[in-house]
Amino acid sequence: MERNLENLDRMFFPRSVAFVGATESPRKWGNLIFDNILAGGYEGLIYPVNPGRESVFGYKAYPSVREIPGELDLAILAVPTEGMEAAVEDCTAKGVKAAVAISAGFKELGGDNARREVRLARRAREGGMLLAGPNGMGICCPKQKLFPWMPPHFPPEGRAAVVSQSGNVQGLLIGEVVYYGFGISKGVSSGNEADLKTEDYFRYLADDPDTEVILSYSARAASLRKPLVILKGGRTTSGVAAARSHTGALAVSERIFESACRQLGIANARTISEAGVLASCFLNRPLPQGRRVGILTSGGGLGVLAADGCSEAGLQVATLSRETLQAIGKHMPPWWVAGNPVDIVAGLDYEAVLHVIDILLSCGEIDALMVLFILQQQNFAPSPVYVNETRERVRKRRDYMFKIIGALSPLLFDAMHRFGVPIYSVSNLRPRPPRQGDEAKMNKRMTVFRTIEDACAAIRAMSDRSAFLREAGSAG
């Protein structure tokens, strides 16, 4: 199906937006979504359409899309179900390039409503207009300051795209990406997919220079040239029934889906949290060239848990050579026990830690490095029993620790790219959410994982991707 998907540029980067159903009446989607467009800072032309009003929030209102002067790139359709066909006809007659249908009440209800949805898609296609939805929550493009969607949420610009049939899941997935300190390139709630399908968005995003990784919640999958993380609903009989009632979508068996993912090099997540982990791990990090993992830890118990996690994830705890262990030993305390995991045994010399990391990354004996709780949050508030000089010493020690923590992360990032070996840092430090304008910092940000299990899942997914690319290259 070769369609005019270049018009998706006009959906995400419109020069003008018509909002059909814009209103100042509170608790209506035509109010909330239109207000989100304004609050998000969109700088293009905005045309509210409401035959019953002269203006909406100070913008001149038009009785119909057909009466708006000039060309229109994008239309947002937030009208009752029975008015949607007329709205689509008006848009195609005007030559609108793309439309986003918000309203529900179509295929998911069956009967006449399902047939109405078929007519919507046919009219959009015959008119040369791309149609997202219906029954979706909307889209976003932070780079364009465009947020025609339901939630009052304005994530920063970044390099992760999210495509989800479910609008609520879309919001949660975006929240997970932002939690790890990254931003969004495009967001799509595809809804019932009467016209545009998930695979259409995948094809577009595969060539999108602003997108580095794609995170999706869908019943479909497609092979593409960028890392793709799929969160699939409908793994159980109950889930299949819920999927059908939610968007009218059919779901395939879990076993078939997992097999397809493996063949296509797709990372398959089972929870929203895991989907966020797998999507963020591909950002700003080189792929491992194999499954050998080095483990650097600040405690022996953590190393044991990491070794178990690697084995359970199908990874290999690397065997380090005598030469490498001897080089590491020069920077370790006398009571160090040589081996992998490399336990710094509560050492406090952070410069020594950096030397050890350089040795591990350059030795050629590991494909990935886990760094466990070298960076960690503690309660640095001085106890009330601390007084005078004691309290001041605690404060200075706290300030020093924060200084080290702030300096270590960028050093790890630079070392990872210098040697081409990915680092997976695990810490209870909560990353600061990114802010609009922090794009340069986000491009040098390294994901810090919440748990050892998250880090192992990330290494497994990236190792699988690396193996898939090698096999595809040898086959092609």
Walk me through the structure.
This protein is an alpha/beta fold and 476 residues long. Helix content is 40%, strand content 16%. It has 15 helices and 19 strands. Helix 4 links the parallel strand 6 and strand 7. The two termini are 24 Å apart.
What low-confidence regions span 5 or more consecutive residues with pLDDT below 50?
219-224, 377-382
Look at the helices and sheets and give the structural class: alpha/beta
- By DSSP (H or I, 4+ residues per run), the number of helices equals 15
Task: Report how far apart the termini are.
Answer: 24 Å
Shape: elongated
Total beta strands: 19
Mean pLDDT: 86
Which percent range fits the helix content? 40-55%
Query: What is the gyration radius calculated from CA atoms?
Result: 26 Å
Approximately what portion of the residues adopt beta-strand conformation? 15-25%
Sheet with the most strands?
6 strands, mixed
Order of the strands making up the biggest sheet = 8-10-9-11-12-13
